[in-house]
Amino acid sequence: MSDEHHAHHHHDHDHDHGSELSPMDLRVRALESILVEKGYVDPAAIDALVEMYETRVGPRNGAQVVARTWADADFRDWLRRDASAAIASMGFEGRQGEHMVAVENTPEEHNLVVCTLCSCYPWPVLGLPPTWYKSAPYRSRAVIDPRGVLAEFGVSLPETTRIRVWDSTAEMRYLVIPMRPEGTQGWSQEKLADLVTRDAMIGTGLARDPASLASGEDAA
Amino acid sequence: MNLPDALDAATQAAQAPIPRCADGPVFSAPWEAQAFAMTLRLHEQGAFTWKEWAHTLSTVIREAQAAGDPDDGATYYTHWLTALERIIAQKRLVAHDQLETRRAALYRAARATPHGEPIRLENDPEFRA
């Protein structure tokens, strides 16, 4: 057998040039095609939703809420009384943001949010959760050993600071309001929002150091 | 799943490090995004409540964990899709058999579709409109 012949046969071994779907693609496409046929879902609506969660809903929304809470005492009062309404007034509402509670960090108390059962998360303000939030180690250890979890995220709090863990549910979602860093008097809300990271709003981080903004340092 | 298995899995999870890789895209594959979006649409049309959904998803996750899934977050949307298939069967929207039949048809359709072209159900050699 010549090399040429061999090469040809190698490509042709199963007698077709067909396509293949991965097992997960096969499952999703089977489901979607039936749901579309039955009129339960519209492919255009599916695409629009995906686009929205990939590009428009994310922790920048929550950072704006936090910055306004720091800068605007009336808004802070409203947030304390009715977080869902106060947040919705900024245009961040809808799916999984219907029942929001804002929990404020103080020198005495630090708040940490988890969903021990699955992955309940305040989508309108934070987008979809990061992988670690959905992982079993985080879900179980946030409750058993919150201080240890914080250490893994590089956060160490004074021994005198209590850590309060909030377990999200299908009905209740939490947004952590981190402490406003020192040295930010007179800052615009826009500039303040740059200090607010996603992790700070889950409680696995703190607001960024104002000095880090000047140096262009990046944080999760 | 029995209780000791669940406890064992929970203990293991409690000892494993939290997987803190760099943040990737929101969805790591298109099928994840589609499974996610279909669930939202069905919920919005009243097919199930979000409480029912959260219950189904957490049950599927617990079962997978007990069966040895590392449950490190990377398999999350696999659990999500399993939960979606389960809840729509429970709600009698789409029966399990119907899904199986459609998967087989799509598999044949894919095999019969030249690489690079869109895979349509009509490409299934056994397709009957």
Provide the CATH top-level class of the largest domain in chain A: Alpha Beta
Q: What is the domain total for the residues of chain B?
A: 2
Q: Pair with the most extensive interface?
A: A-B, 59 and 68 residues
Say what the CATH topology of the largest domain in chain A is.
Nitrile Hydratase, Chain A
Distance between the termini of chain A: 59 Å
How would you sum up this structure in a few lines?
Chain A is 48% helix and 10% strand.
List the helices and strands and how they pair.
The complex is a heterodimer of chains A (220) and B (129).
Chain A: H1 3-11, H2 23-37, H3 43-55, H4 59-71, H5 73-81, H6 83-88, E1 100-104, E2 109-114, H7 123-126, H8 131-134, H9 136-144, H10 146-152, E3 162-167, E4 173-177, H11 189-193, H12 198-202, H13 210-215
Chain B: H1 3-15, H2 30-44, H3 50-66, H4 76-90, H5 96-111
Question: Which features would summarize this protein structure in a list?
Answer:
heterodimer; A: 220 residues; mainly alpha; Nitrile Hydratase, Chain A; 2 domains; two-stranded parallel sheet; two-stranded parallel ribbon; 13 helices; 10% strand; globular; disordered N terminus; B: 129 residues
Description:
The complex is a heterodimer of chains A (220) and B (129). With 220 residues, chain A is mostly helical. Chain A has helices spanning 3-11, 23-37, 43-55, 59-71, 73-81, 83-88, 123-126, 131-134, 136-144, 146-152, 189-193, 198-202, 210-215; strands at residues 100-104, 109-114, 162-167, 173-177. Chain A has 2 domains: 23-56, no CATH class; 58-214, Nitrile Hydratase, Chain A, CATH 3.90.330. Chain A is built from 13 helices and 4 strands. In chain A, helix 4 packs across helix 5 (73-81) and helix 9 crosses helix 10. The N and C termini of chain A lie far apart (59 Å). Chain B has 2 domains: 31-94, no CATH class; 95-129, no CATH class. Chain B is globular. Chain B starts with a helix and ends in an 18-residue tail after the last helix. The mean pLDDT of chain B is 86. At the A-B interface, helix 2, helix 3, helix 8 and helix 9 of A face helix 1, helix 2, helix 3, helix 4 and helix 5 of B.
